Amino acid sequence: MADIRTLDLNLLRALDALLDERSVTRAAARLGLTQPAVSGALARLREAFGDPLFVRTQRGVLPTPRAQALAGPLRRLLADAEALVRPAEFDPATAEMLLRLAATDYAERTLVAPFLAALRAEAPRARLAVRPLEEAHVLAQMERGDFDLALMRLEAAPPALYALRLLDERYVCALRADHPDAAGPLSLDRFCALDHALVSLAGGGFRGPTDTALAALGRRRRVAVSVPSFLALPALLRASDLVAAVPERLLRGVSGVALLPLPLDVPGFTMIAAWHERTHHDPAHRWARTLLAAVAARSAAQAEPRMSRPAWRSGRPRP
Question: Which helix (H) or strand (E) holds 275?
């Protein structure tokens, strides 16, 4: 009697070919095997099922009633087995996927909003769940499956994650449009003399990349206000004489806010999409990452010519 624990799937493929071809020679050709190999497979099938399965005739082989009874279930079994190993197909127009994304508020404004618009246009039944990004815990959260994709700074990404470079960002000086210094340009002395607002994502901080760059020049500024979110800045700047060094894309085009070049070199940053090995080969997630890359490329194409152009590509985890 056949034991599923020891039955070779290739034997079932040979049985299926014999049922269709009614010939050992033709079944061998169909399977890409030699005739003796198929004859050997038939011998093992007879032993496994305890039945002759086929009898020889002048025109080939004829199935026994037992073999005929196996034909239908066998085809369904082989079809199910092929479906298991066949690459899954993904049609964005009909897919009901849920994409879970973690992002900073900067990424929410610059990338998530246009990405959502593109997602709704191409995959109208897809859903997007966005949560705050916790850089220190991103790897552990991805390993637990808390979310699928993280929009974050390149330098903060764990090397174990895959990464897709999205855009390069630079810092500019933001102030209200009718600020006394809005006509610019700002000198370094004037920049240091003004009161500043600073975004501290961890909350309560009064030092950032601008302060590090100033310290290298032997200068300092006065940070009068620290806020935990970039999204709080526009209203704060419009209501005061404060200035802020901010990523350019964050406040570009915001009403009532002017942007000026900084009077010193403050290193910018690179935004990436990061993901875990568990979603790397999934067709739906691969499609979503391709769409995100296209959205980022359009954003880069709209940037000012003096900004560096991002080169983005999928990459394996960094060693």
Answer: strand 269-275
Query: What CATH class has 171-260?
Result: alpha beta
Q: Where do the structural domains in the chain lie, given as residue ranges?
A: 9-85, 98-169+269-315, 171-260
Phi/psi at 116 (nearest 5 deg)? -60, -40
Q: 98-169+269-315, which class in CATH?
A: alpha beta
Q: Which long-range contacts (CB under 8 A, 24 or more apart) does 140-147 make?
A: 141/102, 142/274, 142/275, 142/276, 143/276, 145/278, 146/100, 146/102, 147/100, 147/101, 147/102
Closest CA to 55 of 64, 46, 65, 47: 64
Name the pairing type of β-strands 149-153 and 195-199. Answer: unpaired
Statement: residue 11 has pLDDT above 80: yes
In the structure, what pLDDT confidence band is assigned to residue 86 with cuts at 50, 70 and 90?
low
Q: Do 9-85 and 98-169+269-315 share a fold?
A: no
Pair of tokens at residue 68 = 């005929």
| pLDDT tens track for 104-133 | 888 988 899 899 999 999 999 999 999 999
**Residue 246: what pLDDT?**
92
Residue 135 pLDDT: 87
Packed helices 113-122 and 283-301: angle between N→C axes, nearest 10 degrees: 130
What is 9-85's CATH topology? Arc Repressor Mutant, subunit A (1.10.10)
Q: Is residue 87 within 8 Å of 283, Cβ to Cβ? A: yes
Q: For residue 178, what pLDDT band results from cuts at 50, 70 and 90?
A: very high
